[in-house]
């Protein structure tokens, strides 16, 4: 009796354990956790019988949350799937159950990314053709060929794949590494070997170029090797006679096989990391090149110092300037140095900060970005010409450029617009910079503007009167810092615009600020706004002598005639000025 009870308890515990293990379905396959809390699952079935290619995922994420590693295929799961043509196992698979693919007679290939041959149950591939190719990582090839379960397949070979015209052999899956073994179309011009290549959602480091791969590719003119490259096989670039330069980013000279560069001109420049130059010069394989040079990271031409952004693409940014810089500056689209042509794409943050000699800057087409504070405190700068290509500008770009009177933007620019020398975003909803040196004493911000940008009017010490339209909802930090001559503001927004830090720093709080009469209380309650001498705009429209006038500019006190009344005489005179008490 006790024995029966004990057996029942064991059965109950087993059932409870199985129930506790997580089970779920993802993309038509059923999974069960191999043990509570292990984070590993096995495939136990399917909702729809798979056909064609069955690509087993490495990890799965059920709708309930979490991520699980797929490590096993349960017994007999796909035994009746006789329409499968290809099965692909991930690197995480450790076990394939008995009869798992027993009747998969139509299989034409099997691919397994596991570096250790998965354990295989009895008759796992019972009726499958054992002469079909089985693709595995190259480093594991001998392990599969000598494994009792896998050696039934007589055509085991390594996994290959193609990416961007180059064919790769998968060497390892832990770590992920690959070798270049061929190409689909004969490469010409610049051959840029990538540091990594993607395959099935994973990145593989490119560490080797196989023997003879690019032999007699006479159209190659330049080779670029990544830092990851360790080995260049024998005759790999045999008789690539048109090579004009080689660049190698590995700080350790890659191993070079016999006659790898036979036929190439040994006087061409070979660029290597500066800290590794002596290593390359003392290396027997690399010292055959007589013009070994350090890779250029910065250089100066015409008073401008450039920093290389991308060695392969040969793109640079203007980093700073020297004393040789002329007063009228042109940022060129390209620059040549050391026999190479570089494309100029950017101007770095603070590149011209506090330069006291430049008076005008023209930025050529091709420059796409300007960093923060690039021209800050350039007190002599009067004009800046921005090309259509410029699409990104940082903050404080023209901070305290006290002589700046105009920022001119090319008409085709898709990001920015200039009106009367004032810089806006393209749709004129943000006023970015009102040049500090503009001589005008009053300015009315256009009605399209909703945001006044960071530092937008800073140090505009000629400005005495300003009108902010009803459309403005926010004003950026330091926007009116240093506008010490400002004597009057009119703010037409019915809701007080939101203010960032130090918007009105150094502005006299006793100046009158005119706001809509209905909003006076709101401004009087709003932080910062309440510090000013707030006054209500008493009238927007009035009638005198039978003519109705609308106020156009409260600050300038200009009006227009918009209508008439019955009091208008037969002979009417539109006066030059009109007086109205209110």
From TrEMBL:
Taxonomic superkingdom: Bacteria
Secretion signal span: 1-20
UniProt keyword annotations, A-Z: Signal
TM region positions: none
InterPro entries: LRR_5 (IPR026906), LRR_dom_sf (IPR032675), Surface_bspA-like (IPR053139)
Keyword Signal: yes
Annotated protein name in UniProt: Leucine-rich repeat domain-containing protein
Organism: Candidatus Gallipaludibacter merdavium
